[in-house]
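User: I'm putting together a teaching handout on how multi-component assemblies are represented. Below are the sequence lines for each component of a complex, exactly as they appear in our records. Could you produce the 3D structure of the whole assembly as structure tokens, so the students can see both representations side by side? Please keep the chain order the same as the input.
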Amino acid sequence: MSTTASGAEKQGEVTGIRARRRARVAWAFLSPALVVTAFVALYPLCDTLYLSLTNTRLGSEEPPRFVGLSNYAELVHDGFFLDALLLTVFFAVITVMLELALGLGIALLLDARFKGRSAVRAAMLVPWAIPTAVSTQMWKWMYNDVYGVFNDVLVNRLGLVSEPIAFTADPRTSLAAAVLVDVWKTTPFVALLLLAGLQLIPRELYEAARVDGATRLQAFTQITLPLLRPALLVALVFRTLDALRVFDVFYVMFGSRPDMQTLATYAHEILVSISDVGYGSAVSTAIFLVIAVFIVIYVALFRRREA
Amino acid sequence: MKARTMARRVIFGMAVLSLVAYLVFPFGWALVSSFKTNAELFSTPARFWPEHPTLEHYRHVLANADFLHAVLNSVLVASSVTLVSLAIGALAAFALGRYRFRGRSVVLYVVLSMTLFPQIAVLGALFQLVNALGLYNRLPALTLTYLVFTLPFTIWVLTGFLEAVPAEIEEAAYMDGASPLQLFTKIMLPLAAPGMVTTGLLSFIAAWNELLFALSFMQTPDKRTVTYAILSFSATTSSAFEVPWGQMMAASVLVTMPLVLLALVFQRRIIAGLTAGAVKG
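Assistant: Of course. Below is the structure of the complete assembly, with chains in the same order as your input.
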């Protein structure tokens, strides 16, 4: 009796040792990634937080001082920052709504079987693969007020407007011009994501719904939308976070035009062009906070629906 | 009834065609523009097809030393960051995909939240880090900092790949007396090869497309990457007559073509990788 008990004990001890050894091996394999992550992400993140509480300036003679929350106090009264915040949130809301709606439409279209479907799927990757900086230049050429193809079609061919529109210079059309580029570039990603979600829905459900006499619209609202919710949510989160840190489109299209700064272009301007690392870090941290607020809102909405 | 299905087909076909037109038109227009003479580019009404196709803009761009430097720099940065993140990422994915240990889920959470990380949030600190390491205006600065967005993604996707390997394969290897390192290099790496191709492509494309860090950490024209260099075609002048649109479109086509071809050739893998990265989350 006692021998079997001690045998089992020994057995347990051996598995315990083995588990510990396995854990050590696992951490050894993880260590390069952990070191790199700590070095380029976690430390910089903490450092940015710290810097935002100082008056650090690059190339300044005097040593940086701890200034508490005064950078943040300044931020609240900084008109440029508030404008950038407003523009960025507005941009994010518009683009994400358009991208989800358009992406859903495209995904539904491509969910049908037809000849040449894989060619269309391949074409979806074209906007996605082109660097944003480059595609913004391509669109700027199409937007050109004198020789651009859009004005050519609107003025010369359709005669819809009498005077060419300076799409990227006119304050009334500037935001729309940026939105169109972003929507063109990222809708394919949303559509591919939703298409993957659609293909997970069992076809039998639609069969059963048809047998029960459901209309197409009912099948869409009762089957497709609810089952697509996880994919829609992922697309919503990914796109919102991406849109809130938008940089390339605005930087390339508008440069330093004061009325067209986003949070990211404003932070870049202060950090790199003005070298005010302390204040710029406060702007960076603010971006982080704005993104965190959106995540909290999404999680809360998701939880409530789930319950 | 027949007329109705016919009509439905026509509408469907038109929807698909307009979708394709929408997707490829901006690139197609850049391509067409890059072959037009300046006289044709700057004429109203615009011509849709180049009447006298010319390679003049391509000749100009390919004779531009700064542009060639930029292409070389982008190739160097994108390939080095891809190799580093594949190497480090595969090791980490092996640990996360094949071992159960305390702290595993915390590490996975950190990796996942890093894929959503706003790069701008660490720009200030990275700027200081790059300066402190003496890497300002040197390409390794980009290789190092681009890991912020390539590494988490690589780990995430490869972990999924390695998790899916059946346990019997691992047990058989241990029976044969393989060490963990041998198991990793001889068995798991070959099995993860398709996943490495996918994540490698996505890392390369992400690094090739990056602008913010390149703009912040590189300065002189010989250190710029393609996304930075493409800006300099218009930065010097603001008047429409002086922007060399033909050259800019030729340069755009040149830096985009390799990516578009890669994307088309590997479309299945890329789509699988893009959606795997997200759908699992």
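A couple of points students might notice: Chain A has a mean pLDDT of 89. Chain A touches chain B through 96 residues (CB under 8 Å).
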